């Protein structure tokens, strides 16, 4: 694992905070819509990527380890999208 | 033992000393991710079966507090990452680890306050299995945060490179779980 310098970590934290705050604004003003939920799921995967690559220092880690860890949030986000899609289909 | 304090991290520690890419750590990481992944998948599946009950129950949650807790946990993770840098001095590592633990405790306090606002409606039958699963999954995660905060403080007291690498890696995994758990439990 390669740990980044302090400035890089500060920048990553600032980006993460900006993402969370933008998500909270979306929830406050447009919460409950499918578009916002999908956007927030996408942002969750982006946040996981930043935490794994920068905070955990996996940017230069072996491909299998890096993608394995990133597969976890992606799979759960896809399952959540599938649930959303099922809810959008009217039952017979 | 000669009564002196144990050696602590020196600034000249190399990347290899702090490396945590050993098999046991990643087995632990993946066991955590597998357990929480199965629980969250179960939550989604029951949410499909009891869609109306879950939608009604979700209106009693507080996504704003959960959002604040996301900020708190990410800030804690940031401090943990600062502590794991091999070039950091022992004092800087200790300070960062203690701040990471402090934010972990703040997460626990906020989550317990949130629970206090939800517990009154948790037993109502119209909400199906929502609150049972909600308290199980978020409570399991909360215990990890509480225990992790205590370990962060312990490691701040005795900051060896191996221990710092171990707890900060697990701390980031706890962070990852919350990031995914938030939209799945509160929104989907």
TrEMBL record, chain A:
Compartments, record wording: Cell membrane
Topology versus the membrane: Multi-pass membrane protein
Swiss-Prot/TrEMBL keywords: Cell membrane, Membrane, Transmembrane, Transmembrane helix
UniProt main location, coarse: membrane
InterPro entries the UniProt entry points to: Cyt_c_oxidase_su4_prok
Cellular component, GO, one term: plasma membrane
Transmembrane region(s): 12-30, 67-89
Organism superkingdom: Bacteria
Species the sequence originates in: Ensifer adhaerens (Sinorhizobium morelense)
Name of the protein in question: Cytochrome C oxidase subunit IV
One Pfam family in the UniProt entry: COX4_pro
UniProtKB/TrEMBL annotation, chain B:
GO BP of this protein: aerobic electron transport chain
GO MF annotation terms: cytochrome-c oxidase activity
Limits of the Heme-copper oxidase subunit III family profile domain: 1-188
One Pfam family hit: COX3
Domain of life: Bacteria
Record carries keyword Transmembrane: yes
Principal location: membrane
Keywords assigned: Membrane, Transmembrane, Transmembrane helix
GO cellular component terms attached to this protein's record: plasma membrane
Membrane topology listed for this record: Multi-pass membrane protein
Keyword NADP carried by entry: no
Name under which the protein is recorded: NorE accessory protein for nitric oxide reductase
InterPro entries associated with the record: Cyt_c/ubiquinol_Oxase_su3 (IPR024791), Cyt_c_oxidase-like_su3 (IPR000298), Cyt_c_oxidase_su3-like_sf (IPR035973), Cyt_c_oxidase_su3_a-hlx (IPR013833)
Coiled coil segments of this chain: none
Family: Belongs to the cytochrome c oxidase subunit 3 family.
Residues spanning the membrane: 23-49, 96-113, 133-157, 164-186
Subcellular location: Cell membrane; Membrane
């Amino acid at each position: 694992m390669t740990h980044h310098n302090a400035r890089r970590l500060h920048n990553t934290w600032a980006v993460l905070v900006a993402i969370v705050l933008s998500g909270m604004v979306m929830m406050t003003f447009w919460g409950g819509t499918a578009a916002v939920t999908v956007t927030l799921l996408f942002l969750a995967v982006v946040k996981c990527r930043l935490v794994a690559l920068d905070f955990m220092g996996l940017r230069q880690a072996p491909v299998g380890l890096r993608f394995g860890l990133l597969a976890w949030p992606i799979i759960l986000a896809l399952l959540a999208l599938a649930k959303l899609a099922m809810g959008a289909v009217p039952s017979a | 033992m000669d009564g002196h304090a144990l050696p602590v991290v020196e600034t000249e520690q190399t990347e290899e000393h702090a490396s945590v890419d050993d098999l046991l750590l990643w087995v632990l990481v993946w066991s955590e991710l597998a357990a929480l992944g199965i629980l969250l998948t179960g939550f989604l599946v029951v949410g499909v079966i009891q869609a109306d009950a879950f939608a009604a129950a979700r209106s009693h949650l507080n996504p704003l507090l959960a959002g604040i807790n996301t900020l708190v946990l990410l800030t804690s993770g940031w401090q943990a990452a600062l502590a794991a840098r091999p070039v950091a001095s022992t004092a800087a590592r200790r300070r960062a680890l203690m701040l990471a633990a402090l934010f972990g405790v703040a997460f626990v306090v906020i989550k317990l306050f949130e629970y206090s606002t939800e517990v009154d409606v948790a037993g109502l039958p119209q909400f199906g299995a929502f609150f049972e699963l909600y308290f199980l999954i978020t409570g399991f995660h909360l215990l990890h945060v509480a225990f992790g905060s205590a370990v962060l403080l312990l490691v701040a007291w005795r900051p060896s490179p191996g221990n710092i690498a171990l707890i900060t890696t697990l701390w980031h995994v706890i962070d990852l779980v919350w990031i995914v758990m938030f939209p799945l439990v509160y929104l989907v």
